[in-house]
Every structure is written in structure tokens, then in C-alpha cells.
Amino acid sequence: MIEKERLHKFIAKGGVCSRRAAEELIREGRVKVNGETIREMGVSVSTEDEVTVDEVTVRPQKLITVVLNKPKGIVTTLHDPQRRPTIIKFLPEMGAVLKPVGRLDMETTGVLICTSDGELGMRLSHPRHGVEKEYKVIIHGQLTEKSLVQLRTGVYIEGVKTKPAFVELLNYERRRDTSLLKMIIHEGRNRQIRMMCQAVGNPVIELERVRVGPLTCKGMRAGECRVLGQQEVNKLKALVGLE
Predict the structure, then answer these.
(1) Active site residues
(2) How far apart are the C-alpha atoms of 184 and 110, rounded to whole Å?
(3) Beta-carbon neighbour count of residue 37 at 10 Å?
(4) How many CB atoms lie within 10 A of CB 89?
(5) Tens digit of pLDDT for each residue in 138-164?
């Protein structure tokens, strides 16, 4: 018996987008099944059907999730028009497109999740699920108590206040005039940690993401990539409410 599943799930498993985004594609008339445009929900398909999105065939992918210890000087994208080095050189070839979950800027190192599971990737990156992201931060100068309170309660970045964060001052090195912080946030705004520290007058010198949810890069060298086992994937799914 041929196994069928809902069209929006099939598209998400093809790595195109999340299930919710796939539903929008269907409503917009951008999805065809065996040459026929589909606009209603509830249609089921199998691997024997030809499914296209914007005339591009959707093929089922292996659901693979990896954690990469991103090195410095690497762009968090699969293709860069400026021809800068990207994470693609560190990802394994396993017959699936592994897309990064969120971004780390070029100079930030550490934990980066990449997955071919469109739904899992979307949920992990969406702020409503509140996935913890922990950072080791070295800033210029001595962090004052007032600045510490500001970082914890929220600062304004581009006119929008950040959500409450865990911030702990671990050490101040007088000789170098630098402070070491542990920061945990639940958002994923572009360059958020750097902009938060800049907002209180203590620019970031070094930044490493040491944890996303339960995942760390402990024992992994820079540039090393590890495929997650099913138990680890299940923990990530449970974290964001996936079965």
C-alpha cells in the first residue's frame, strides 16, 4: 500500500519551507500536483505524485539534522554572491540540503544547527518557542551595575526593546580592560548580542555561541560537524512542540 500524507507536510519534508509557509503557497496557487494547481487544504499525495512549487519539483529528502562548530570568518549561508567562504564547505554530503537555523555573523563562532527538516528549522528559529541560546561574550570595558540591569531587563535595538535575558558578569580583566559575560537569550534578532552590548557602551570583542537548547559543541574542533542521533533530534522536536 502506497503511503500518503498531507500536501503541506510533503512540501515541508522536501526542505522547501515550514508547514505553515507551505499552506500559504497552496492558497496562493503556487503548488501543482501532477500538473494541476491545488488551492485547497486537505489534499494527500505520495512519492508517486509529481509535486511542484513555482514549477520546481519537490522531492522527498532525508530528514537530517547536524550541529556545526562554526569557525570565525565564515558566512552562515549556503551560497554567497560576494564569494566569501560559507558553511557549505563544512557540511556533509548526505543527499539532503542542510539549511542553517538562524544565523551567526562572520566573526561569531560556535553552535550552529543545520537541518533538512523545514518544519523543525522554522520552529527552532521562531521566537515564540523561546529556545535558549547561550553565549560566551568578551566585551570592552568594565560593565557597570546599571548596564547589567539594562541588559537583563531589555535595551532598545532599532526602536524595539529586547526581551528579558540572563546576563552574568563572570570576570573583569583590568590589564586588558575587558569583561567576560555569560548571556542567554530567547530571541534571534540579527547581531542581537553585539547590538545589546553596544547599546550600553561595551562593544563586543569576541563572541561564541556555546549552546542552543540542549546542544553544545563540547569536544568539537572549529569547523567540525556532527550528525545528530534520533534521541537528540527528538529532544529538539519536543522543545518546539513537534511530535
Answers:
(1) 105
(2) 14
(3) 11
(4) 8
(5) 999 999 999 999 999 999 999 999 999
Q: Are 204 and 143 in contact (CB under 8 A)?
A: no
| Domain boundaries, given as residue ranges, for the chain | 5-57, 65-128+219-239, 132-212
Backbone phi, then psi, for 145, in 5-degree steps? -60, -40
Neighbours of 171 (CB within 10 A): 9
Which letter does DSSP use for residue 75 in this model?
B
pLDDT tens for 185-201 read: 998 788 999 999 999 99
Task: In whole angstroms, give the CA distance from residue 223 to residue 74.
Answer: 10
Above 90 in pLDDT, residue 4?
A: no
Pairing type for strands 109-115 and 204-212 reads parallel
Beta-bridge partner residues of 169: 181
Could you read off the pLDDT of 167-189 as tens digits, one per residue? 999 999 999 999 999 999 998 78
- Pick 132-212's CATH classification: 3.40.50.920, 3.30.70.1560, 3.40.50.1000, 3.40.640.10: 3.30.70.1560
